[in-house]
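Section 3.1: Structural characterization of target chains.
Under the original work plan, the team committed to producing a structural model for every single-chain target entering the pipeline before any wet-lab resources were allocated. The record below documents one such target. The sequence was received from the expression subgroup and is listed exactly as submitted; it comprises 171 residues.
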Amino acid sequence: MIWKRLSRFDTYWSQRLRKLEEPGIARKAAIVFAHSGDSWFWLSGFILSWIIGSQELKQWALRMILVVFALAFTVMVIKFAIRRPRPEGDFGEIYRRSDPHSFPSGHAARSVLLAVLVVGWGPTWLALILVPWAPLVSLARVALGLHFPTDVLAGGLLGLIAGLIALLFGG
């Protein structure tokens, strides 16, 4: 019964949120937000921070890298256990080939995780950017047809829980 309700919820909201099939500024913005949550982008920034940063920045970057990797591992275990296919669509061929499973959304999990960690560990200026950015990444993933709404909701919840655990145990 619950799976039927979730399926109806996903169908209803997917149809309403997936409005960016046509070219335009909204589609371009959604593509930027959808890709801005890519792991390679954030890990590159953290590695660069670790290489050129002060001792304090190195410690921060290392904590961020470790937590991002732990979350990525958790997301992949869940994805391969559930094996929910991505929604039908043409956008995001690289994601569809490299990761055909949609539940939970790794981008949603990572974006919420990063926002939570930066709120707790700083810097404040980055927190002011990442807190509103995180839901926009999730929304863009649905709007472009890469995920169902429940994928990003579950991913966001997973990122929130992982972030709170990391803050509790990681300093």
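The chain has one domain: 24-169.
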